[in-house]
User: Fold this.
Amino acid sequence: MTHDEDEVEPADGGSSRRSRSSLPVGAFTRGAKLAALPVGFAGRTALGVGRRIGGAPADAVVTEVQRRTAEQVFTVLGQLKGGAMKVGQAMSIFEAALPEEIAAPYRETLTKLQDAAPPMPVAVVHRQLAAELGEDWRERLVEIGDQPPAAASIGQVHRGRWHDGREVAVKIQYPGAAKALRSDLRQLSRISRLLGVLAPGIDVKALLAELEERVVEELDYRLEATAQQRFHEEYRDDPDLMVPAVVDGTERVLVSEWMESTSSLAELIRSGSQADRDLYGSRYVRFLLASPDRVGMLHADPHPGNFRILPDGRLGIVDFGAVAHLPDGLPRALGPLLTAAVSGDAAAVTDGLRGEGFLRPGTKIDPEVMAAYVAPFVEPAVAEEFTFSRAWLRDQATRVGLGGEGMSTSLKINLPPEYLLIHRVWIGGVGVLCQLGATAPFRSILEESVPGFIPSS
Assistant:
Protein backbone atom coordinates (compact mmCIF):
# COMPACT_ATOMS: atom_id res chain seq x y z
CA MET A 1 0.00 0.00 0.00
CA THR A 2 1.05 3.59 -0.51
CA HIS A 3 0.55 6.94 1.17
CA ASP A 4 -3.07 7.40 2.35
CA GLU A 5 -5.20 10.11 3.84
CA ASP A 6 -7.34 7.40 5.45
CA GLU A 7 -7.44 3.65 5.03
CA VAL A 8 -8.75 3.08 1.54
CA GLU A 9 -8.62 0.61 -1.27
CA PRO A 10 -7.03 1.73 -4.55
CA ALA A 11 -9.31 4.15 -6.33
CA ASP A 12 -11.31 2.73 -9.15
CA GLY A 13 -10.32 4.05 -12.52
CA GLY A 14 -13.77 3.47 -13.96
CA SER A 15 -16.32 6.03 -15.09
CA SER A 16 -17.11 8.77 -12.62
CA ARG A 17 -20.54 9.69 -11.31
CA ARG A 18 -19.16 12.76 -9.60
CA SER A 19 -20.18 16.10 -11.01
CA ARG A 20 -17.47 18.49 -12.16
CA SER A 21 -17.66 20.55 -8.98
CA SER A 22 -18.82 18.37 -6.13
CA LEU A 23 -18.31 15.24 -4.08
CA PRO A 24 -19.26 11.80 -5.48
CA VAL A 25 -23.00 12.47 -5.60
CA GLY A 26 -24.97 15.68 -5.83
CA ALA A 27 -26.43 17.57 -2.90
CA PHE A 28 -29.99 16.44 -3.58
CA THR A 29 -29.02 12.78 -3.81
CA ARG A 30 -26.84 13.05 -0.69
CA GLY A 31 -29.72 14.56 1.27
CA ALA A 32 -32.17 11.96 0.01
CA LYS A 33 -29.90 9.07 1.00
CA LEU A 34 -29.37 10.46 4.51
CA ALA A 35 -33.03 11.36 4.91
CA ALA A 36 -34.01 7.79 4.03
CA LEU A 37 -32.10 6.36 6.99
CA PRO A 38 -34.67 7.22 9.70
CA VAL A 39 -37.45 5.87 7.47
CA GLY A 40 -35.68 2.55 7.17
CA PHE A 41 -35.07 2.49 10.90
CA ALA A 42 -38.74 3.18 11.64
CA GLY A 43 -39.72 0.29 9.39
CA ARG A 44 -37.29 -2.08 11.05
CA THR A 45 -38.44 -0.98 14.51
CA ALA A 46 -42.08 -1.58 13.57
CA LEU A 47 -41.12 -5.00 12.25
CA GLY A 48 -39.31 -5.67 15.52
CA VAL A 49 -42.38 -4.75 17.55
CA GLY A 50 -44.41 -7.12 15.41
CA ARG A 51 -41.97 -9.91 16.02
CA ARG A 52 -42.05 -9.24 19.78
CA ILE A 53 -45.85 -9.48 19.74
CA GLY A 54 -45.40 -12.73 17.85
CA GLY A 55 -43.24 -14.09 20.64
CA ALA A 56 -39.65 -13.50 19.43
CA PRO A 57 -37.13 -12.96 22.27
CA ALA A 58 -36.38 -9.29 23.00
CA ASP A 59 -32.61 -9.73 22.63
CA ALA A 60 -33.01 -11.38 19.24
CA VAL A 61 -35.27 -8.58 18.00
CA VAL A 62 -32.84 -5.86 19.16
CA THR A 63 -29.96 -7.69 17.51
CA GLU A 64 -31.83 -7.98 14.22
CA VAL A 65 -32.80 -4.29 14.23
CA GLN A 66 -29.20 -3.28 15.00
CA ARG A 67 -27.78 -5.57 12.33
CA ARG A 68 -30.07 -4.32 9.57
CA THR A 69 -29.68 -0.70 10.67
CA ALA A 70 -25.90 -1.05 10.63
CA GLU A 71 -25.88 -2.53 7.15
CA GLN A 72 -27.90 0.37 5.77
CA VAL A 73 -26.20 3.15 7.76
CA PHE A 74 -22.63 2.17 7.03
CA THR A 75 -23.31 1.39 3.39
CA VAL A 76 -24.81 4.88 2.91
CA LEU A 77 -22.06 6.61 4.89
CA GLY A 78 -19.40 4.84 2.89
CA GLN A 79 -21.00 5.78 -0.44
CA LEU A 80 -21.33 9.47 0.34
CA LYS A 81 -17.83 10.35 1.60
CA GLY A 82 -17.68 13.88 3.03
CA GLY A 83 -19.05 14.34 6.52
CA ALA A 84 -20.96 11.09 6.27
CA MET A 85 -17.79 9.12 5.80
CA LYS A 86 -16.02 11.08 8.55
CA VAL A 87 -18.71 9.95 10.97
CA GLY A 88 -18.43 6.41 9.71
CA GLN A 89 -14.68 6.42 10.23
CA ALA A 90 -15.04 7.84 13.73
CA MET A 91 -17.64 5.24 14.68
CA SER A 92 -15.77 2.34 13.07
CA ILE A 93 -12.98 2.76 15.63
CA PHE A 94 -15.46 1.57 18.27
CA GLU A 95 -16.50 -1.52 16.32
CA ALA A 96 -14.66 -3.74 18.79
CA ALA A 97 -17.05 -2.64 21.53
CA LEU A 98 -20.12 -4.01 19.77
CA PRO A 99 -21.55 -7.40 20.77
CA GLU A 100 -20.06 -10.09 18.53
CA GLU A 101 -23.44 -11.28 17.28
CA ILE A 102 -24.08 -7.75 16.04
CA ALA A 103 -20.56 -6.84 14.90
CA ALA A 104 -19.80 -9.97 12.93
CA PRO A 105 -22.49 -9.67 10.21
CA TYR A 106 -21.44 -6.18 9.18
CA ARG A 107 -17.75 -5.99 10.17
CA GLU A 108 -16.98 -6.34 6.50
CA THR A 109 -19.26 -3.39 5.76
CA LEU A 110 -17.41 -1.28 8.32
CA THR A 111 -14.03 -2.08 6.79
CA LYS A 112 -15.34 -1.00 3.40
CA LEU A 113 -16.25 2.49 4.60
CA GLN A 114 -13.08 3.74 2.98
CA ASP A 115 -13.69 2.15 -0.40
CA ALA A 116 -12.67 4.77 -2.92
CA ALA A 117 -15.24 6.81 -4.77
CA PRO A 118 -14.74 7.31 -8.49
CA PRO A 119 -11.85 9.75 -8.84
CA MET A 120 -12.19 13.36 -9.90
CA PRO A 121 -11.85 13.78 -13.66
CA VAL A 122 -8.29 14.64 -14.65
CA ALA A 123 -9.37 18.06 -15.93
CA VAL A 124 -10.85 18.91 -12.52
CA VAL A 125 -7.66 17.79 -10.78
CA HIS A 126 -5.58 20.05 -13.01
CA ARG A 127 -7.98 22.96 -12.43
CA GLN A 128 -7.64 22.52 -8.69
CA LEU A 129 -3.86 22.46 -8.92
CA ALA A 130 -3.83 25.59 -11.08
CA ALA A 131 -6.19 27.39 -8.69
CA GLU A 132 -4.11 26.49 -5.62
CA LEU A 133 -0.51 26.35 -6.88
CA GLY A 134 -0.77 28.84 -9.75
CA GLU A 135 -0.97 28.51 -13.50
CA ASP A 136 2.70 27.54 -13.58
CA TRP A 137 2.16 24.59 -11.23
CA ARG A 138 3.80 22.17 -13.66
CA GLU A 139 7.12 23.96 -13.17
CA ARG A 140 7.13 22.73 -9.56
CA LEU A 141 5.07 19.57 -9.80
CA VAL A 142 6.72 18.17 -12.89
CA GLU A 143 4.88 14.83 -12.84
CA ILE A 144 1.54 13.69 -11.44
CA GLY A 145 -0.34 10.46 -11.97
CA ASP A 146 -3.80 10.83 -13.46
CA GLN A 147 -5.36 8.15 -11.26
CA PRO A 148 -5.16 8.56 -7.46
CA PRO A 149 -3.87 5.53 -5.56
CA ALA A 150 -5.99 6.69 -2.63
CA ALA A 151 -9.24 8.56 -2.08
CA ALA A 152 -10.87 9.44 1.20
CA SER A 153 -13.53 11.56 2.84
CA ILE A 154 -12.74 15.08 1.61
CA GLY A 155 -9.88 14.60 -0.80
CA GLN A 156 -7.81 12.23 -2.88
CA VAL A 157 -4.08 11.58 -3.08
CA HIS A 158 -1.99 11.46 -6.26
CA ARG A 159 1.60 10.34 -6.62
CA GLY A 160 3.91 12.82 -8.32
CA ARG A 161 7.44 14.15 -8.63
CA TRP A 162 8.59 17.56 -7.39
CA HIS A 163 10.98 19.68 -9.45
CA ASP A 164 13.90 18.73 -7.19
CA GLY A 165 13.39 15.04 -7.97
CA ARG A 166 11.56 14.02 -4.78
CA GLU A 167 8.62 11.61 -5.03
CA VAL A 168 5.62 13.33 -3.47
CA ALA A 169 2.06 12.66 -2.33
CA VAL A 170 -0.31 15.38 -3.54
CA LYS A 171 -3.53 15.56 -1.51
CA ILE A 172 -6.21 17.49 -3.38
CA GLN A 173 -9.48 18.50 -1.75
CA TYR A 174 -12.67 17.72 -3.62
CA PRO A 175 -14.38 20.84 -5.02
CA GLY A 176 -17.42 21.49 -2.87
CA ALA A 177 -16.06 19.47 0.06
CA ALA A 178 -16.62 22.24 2.60
CA LYS A 179 -20.29 22.66 1.75
CA ALA A 180 -20.93 18.91 1.67
CA LEU A 181 -19.09 18.32 4.94
CA ARG A 182 -21.09 20.92 6.85
CA SER A 183 -24.37 19.81 5.30
CA ASP A 184 -23.76 16.16 6.10
CA LEU A 185 -22.89 16.84 9.72
CA ARG A 186 -25.97 19.02 10.21
CA GLN A 187 -28.23 16.34 8.76
CA LEU A 188 -26.52 13.50 10.63
CA SER A 189 -26.96 15.38 13.91
CA ARG A 190 -30.72 15.06 13.35
CA ILE A 191 -30.45 11.28 13.29
CA SER A 192 -27.95 10.89 16.14
CA ARG A 193 -30.51 8.73 18.00
CA LEU A 194 -30.57 6.33 15.06
CA LEU A 195 -26.78 6.10 14.93
CA GLY A 196 -26.72 5.56 18.67
CA VAL A 197 -28.75 2.38 18.20
CA LEU A 198 -25.67 0.75 16.69
CA ALA A 199 -23.58 1.17 19.84
CA PRO A 200 -25.44 2.35 22.94
CA GLY A 201 -22.16 3.01 24.77
CA ILE A 202 -21.11 5.74 22.31
CA ASP A 203 -22.35 9.31 22.74
CA VAL A 204 -22.96 9.89 19.05
CA LYS A 205 -24.44 13.35 19.56
CA ALA A 206 -21.25 14.54 21.30
CA LEU A 207 -19.15 12.91 18.59
CA LEU A 208 -21.03 14.76 15.86
CA ALA A 209 -20.77 18.05 17.75
CA GLU A 210 -17.03 17.62 18.06
CA LEU A 211 -16.62 16.77 14.37
CA GLU A 212 -18.62 19.84 13.39
CA GLU A 213 -16.47 22.06 15.59
CA ARG A 214 -13.31 20.79 13.88
CA VAL A 215 -14.57 21.03 10.31
CA VAL A 216 -12.89 24.36 9.61
CA GLU A 217 -9.50 23.08 10.71
CA GLU A 218 -9.68 19.90 8.65
CA LEU A 219 -10.72 21.79 5.54
CA ASP A 220 -7.69 24.11 5.67
CA TYR A 221 -4.71 22.06 4.54
CA ARG A 222 -2.37 24.90 5.56
CA LEU A 223 -3.13 24.12 9.20
CA GLU A 224 -2.53 20.45 8.52
CA ALA A 225 0.79 21.26 6.83
CA THR A 226 1.97 23.21 9.88
CA ALA A 227 1.03 20.38 12.25
CA GLN A 228 2.52 17.68 10.05
CA GLN A 229 5.82 19.51 9.69
CA ARG A 230 6.14 19.91 13.45
CA PHE A 231 5.58 16.20 13.92
CA HIS A 232 8.07 15.45 11.14
CA GLU A 233 10.79 17.54 12.76
CA GLU A 234 10.29 15.89 16.16
CA TYR A 235 10.27 12.35 14.78
CA ARG A 236 12.87 12.88 12.04
CA ASP A 237 15.46 10.60 13.70
CA ASP A 238 13.11 8.28 15.56
CA PRO A 239 14.06 4.61 15.02
CA ASP A 240 10.46 3.37 15.27
CA LEU A 241 8.26 6.13 13.86
CA MET A 242 8.18 8.26 10.71
CA VAL A 243 6.19 11.32 9.61
CA PRO A 244 6.67 12.52 6.01
CA ALA A 245 8.00 16.05 5.49
CA VAL A 246 5.80 18.76 4.00
CA VAL A 247 6.95 20.04 0.61
CA ASP A 248 4.30 22.66 -0.16
CA GLY A 249 0.79 23.50 0.92
CA THR A 250 -2.18 25.72 0.27
CA GLU A 251 -5.71 25.79 1.66
CA ARG A 252 -6.84 22.90 -0.57
CA VAL A 253 -3.65 21.17 -1.73
CA LEU A 254 -1.01 19.53 0.45
CA VAL A 255 2.24 18.20 -1.01
CA SER A 256 4.27 15.82 1.18
CA GLU A 257 7.21 13.55 0.61
CA TRP A 258 6.00 10.19 -0.64
CA MET A 259 5.96 7.51 2.05
CA GLU A 260 6.09 4.00 0.63
CA SER A 261 4.33 1.45 2.82
CA THR A 262 3.60 -2.24 2.69
CA SER A 263 0.44 -2.35 4.81
CA SER A 264 -1.38 -0.55 7.63
CA LEU A 265 -2.76 -1.19 11.08
CA ALA A 266 -6.14 -1.71 9.40
CA GLU A 267 -4.65 -4.56 7.36
CA LEU A 268 -2.99 -6.01 10.47
CA ILE A 269 -6.43 -6.06 12.11
CA ARG A 270 -7.71 -8.13 9.19
CA SER A 271 -4.81 -10.51 8.64
CA GLY A 272 -1.65 -9.59 10.56
CA SER A 273 0.46 -11.99 12.59
CA GLN A 274 0.21 -11.80 16.36
CA ALA A 275 3.84 -10.67 16.58
CA ASP A 276 3.13 -7.72 14.25
CA ARG A 277 -0.08 -6.87 16.07
CA ASP A 278 1.82 -6.68 19.35
CA LEU A 279 4.80 -4.75 17.95
CA TYR A 280 2.89 -2.13 16.00
CA GLY A 281 0.09 -1.87 18.55
CA SER A 282 2.71 -0.85 21.10
CA ARG A 283 4.31 1.68 18.73
CA TYR A 284 0.89 3.05 17.86
CA VAL A 285 -0.11 3.77 21.45
CA ARG A 286 3.38 5.10 22.30
CA PHE A 287 3.04 7.64 19.51
CA LEU A 288 -0.43 8.75 20.61
CA LEU A 289 0.52 9.17 24.26
CA ALA A 290 4.04 10.59 23.89
CA SER A 291 3.35 13.24 21.22
CA PRO A 292 1.70 15.83 23.52
CA ASP A 293 4.92 16.19 25.54
CA ARG A 294 7.25 15.76 22.55
CA VAL A 295 5.40 17.94 20.04
CA GLY A 296 2.86 19.90 22.05
CA MET A 297 0.11 18.35 19.92
CA LEU A 298 -1.99 15.21 19.98
CA HIS A 299 -2.79 13.38 16.74
CA ALA A 300 -6.56 13.30 17.09
CA ASP A 301 -7.54 10.87 14.35
CA PRO A 302 -6.50 7.43 15.64
CA HIS A 303 -8.13 5.58 12.73
CA PRO A 304 -5.89 2.56 11.93
CA GLY A 305 -5.67 3.47 8.25
CA ASN A 306 -3.61 6.54 9.17
CA PHE A 307 -0.83 4.32 10.55
CA ARG A 308 1.30 2.62 7.89
CA ILE A 309 3.85 -0.18 8.05
CA LEU A 310 7.01 0.86 6.21
CA PRO A 311 9.46 -1.49 4.43
CA ASP A 312 12.16 -0.75 7.03
CA GLY A 313 9.82 -1.75 9.88
CA ARG A 314 8.95 1.71 11.15
CA LEU A 315 5.39 2.85 11.74
CA GLY A 316 4.50 5.77 9.46
CA ILE A 317 1.82 8.30 10.38
CA VAL A 318 -0.30 10.43 8.04
CA ASP A 319 -3.33 12.73 8.15
CA PHE A 320 -2.73 15.57 10.61
CA GLY A 321 -5.92 17.44 9.80
CA ALA A 322 -7.27 16.78 13.29
CA VAL A 323 -4.88 17.64 16.12
CA ALA A 324 -5.32 18.86 19.67
CA HIS A 325 -2.95 21.66 20.61
CA LEU A 326 -1.43 20.88 24.01
CA PRO A 327 1.55 23.24 24.36
CA ASP A 328 2.09 22.13 27.96
CA GLY A 329 1.59 18.45 27.17
CA LEU A 330 -1.11 16.30 28.70
CA PRO A 331 -2.95 17.84 31.67
CA ARG A 332 -0.66 17.52 34.69
CA ALA A 333 -3.50 16.18 36.82
CA LEU A 334 -3.85 13.15 34.57
CA GLY A 335 -0.80 11.27 35.92
CA PRO A 336 -1.72 11.51 39.61
CA LEU A 337 -5.34 10.67 38.75
CA LEU A 338 -4.27 7.51 36.91
CA THR A 339 -1.95 6.61 39.77
CA ALA A 340 -4.81 6.89 42.26
CA ALA A 341 -7.10 4.82 40.04
CA VAL A 342 -4.53 2.05 39.56
CA SER A 343 -3.77 1.91 43.28
CA GLY A 344 -7.47 1.84 44.17
CA ASP A 345 -7.41 5.07 46.21
CA ALA A 346 -11.15 5.79 46.04
CA ALA A 347 -11.04 9.17 47.78
CA ALA A 348 -8.18 10.46 45.61
CA VAL A 349 -9.94 9.30 42.44
CA THR A 350 -13.15 11.09 43.36
CA ASP A 351 -11.35 14.25 44.51
CA GLY A 352 -9.21 14.27 41.36
CA LEU A 353 -12.19 13.86 39.05
CA ARG A 354 -14.03 16.63 40.86
CA GLY A 355 -11.00 18.91 40.74
CA GLU A 356 -10.65 18.46 36.98
CA GLY A 357 -14.35 19.12 36.35
CA PHE A 358 -15.45 15.53 35.61
CA LEU A 359 -17.86 15.83 38.52
CA ARG A 360 -19.84 19.05 38.64
CA PRO A 361 -20.04 20.99 41.92
CA GLY A 362 -22.74 19.51 44.10
CA THR A 363 -22.71 16.09 42.43
CA LYS A 364 -22.85 13.45 45.16
CA ILE A 365 -21.28 10.05 44.65
CA ASP A 366 -19.83 7.42 46.93
CA PRO A 367 -16.04 7.30 46.38
CA GLU A 368 -16.10 3.50 46.48
CA VAL A 369 -18.73 3.44 43.75
CA MET A 370 -16.66 5.83 41.63
CA ALA A 371 -13.49 3.80 42.16
CA ALA A 372 -15.33 0.61 41.18
CA TYR A 373 -16.63 2.34 38.04
CA VAL A 374 -13.17 3.57 37.01
CA ALA A 375 -11.17 0.45 37.90
CA PRO A 376 -11.95 -1.65 34.79
CA PHE A 377 -11.00 1.24 32.50
CA VAL A 378 -7.51 1.39 34.00
CA GLU A 379 -7.08 -2.37 34.20
CA PRO A 380 -4.57 -2.32 31.28
CA ALA A 381 -2.25 -0.17 33.43
CA VAL A 382 -2.21 -2.53 36.41
CA ALA A 383 -0.14 -5.44 35.07
CA GLU A 384 3.22 -5.27 33.30
CA GLU A 385 1.53 -6.47 30.12
CA PHE A 386 -2.10 -6.44 29.06
CA THR A 387 -3.83 -8.28 26.25
CA PHE A 388 -6.48 -6.05 24.70
CA SER A 389 -9.47 -7.87 23.27
CA ARG A 390 -12.88 -7.30 21.80
CA ALA A 391 -14.44 -9.27 24.65
CA TRP A 392 -12.86 -7.01 27.29
CA LEU A 393 -13.99 -3.85 25.49
CA ARG A 394 -17.50 -5.23 25.00
CA ASP A 395 -17.68 -5.86 28.74
CA GLN A 396 -16.84 -2.21 29.43
CA ALA A 397 -19.30 -0.93 26.82
CA THR A 398 -22.06 -3.11 28.26
CA ARG A 399 -21.24 -2.01 31.80
CA VAL A 400 -21.68 1.70 31.06
CA GLY A 401 -24.24 1.38 28.26
CA LEU A 402 -27.99 1.13 28.35
CA GLY A 403 -28.99 -1.03 31.25
CA GLY A 404 -25.40 -1.60 32.39
CA GLU A 405 -24.49 -1.53 36.07
CA GLY A 406 -22.31 1.52 35.57
CA MET A 407 -24.87 3.57 33.68
CA SER A 408 -26.11 5.50 36.73
CA THR A 409 -22.52 6.46 37.54
CA SER A 410 -21.68 7.42 33.96
CA LEU A 411 -24.65 9.79 33.89
CA LYS A 412 -23.07 11.79 36.72
CA ILE A 413 -19.79 12.28 34.86
CA ASN A 414 -19.15 15.46 32.90
CA LEU A 415 -16.50 15.66 30.17
CA PRO A 416 -14.60 18.98 30.43
CA PRO A 417 -13.92 20.64 27.04
CA GLU A 418 -10.13 20.44 27.49
CA TYR A 419 -10.39 16.66 27.78
CA LEU A 420 -12.72 16.14 24.80
CA LEU A 421 -10.13 15.19 22.20
CA ILE A 422 -7.90 13.47 24.76
CA HIS A 423 -10.87 11.28 25.72
CA ARG A 424 -11.69 10.54 22.08
CA VAL A 425 -8.11 9.53 21.30
CA TRP A 426 -7.81 7.46 24.47
CA ILE A 427 -11.03 5.54 23.76
CA GLY A 428 -10.30 5.31 20.04
CA GLY A 429 -6.75 4.13 20.63
CA VAL A 430 -7.90 1.45 23.07
CA GLY A 431 -10.54 0.41 20.53
CA VAL A 432 -7.88 -0.10 17.87
CA LEU A 433 -5.69 -2.09 20.30
CA CYS A 434 -8.70 -4.30 20.99
CA GLN A 435 -9.31 -4.79 17.28
CA LEU A 436 -5.67 -5.79 16.94
CA GLY A 437 -5.90 -8.08 19.95
CA ALA A 438 -2.49 -6.71 20.88
CA THR A 439 -0.52 -7.58 23.98
CA ALA A 440 1.34 -4.44 25.05
CA PRO A 441 3.43 -3.17 28.00
CA PHE A 442 0.76 -0.56 28.57
CA ARG A 443 1.83 0.34 32.10
CA SER A 444 5.40 1.15 31.08
CA ILE A 445 4.15 3.13 28.08
CA LEU A 446 2.04 5.23 30.44
CA GLU A 447 5.01 5.70 32.78
CA GLU A 448 7.11 6.95 29.84
CA SER A 449 4.42 9.21 28.39
CA VAL A 450 2.18 10.54 31.17
CA PRO A 451 3.96 12.87 33.63
CA GLY A 452 3.11 12.06 37.22
CA PHE A 453 1.97 8.49 36.60
CA ILE A 454 3.84 6.46 39.22
CA PRO A 455 2.15 3.11 39.80
CA SER A 456 3.15 1.06 42.80
CA SER A 457 5.35 -1.88 41.84
Notes: The longest strand covers residues 155-162. Confidence is low (pLDDT under 50) at residues 1-28, 37-63.
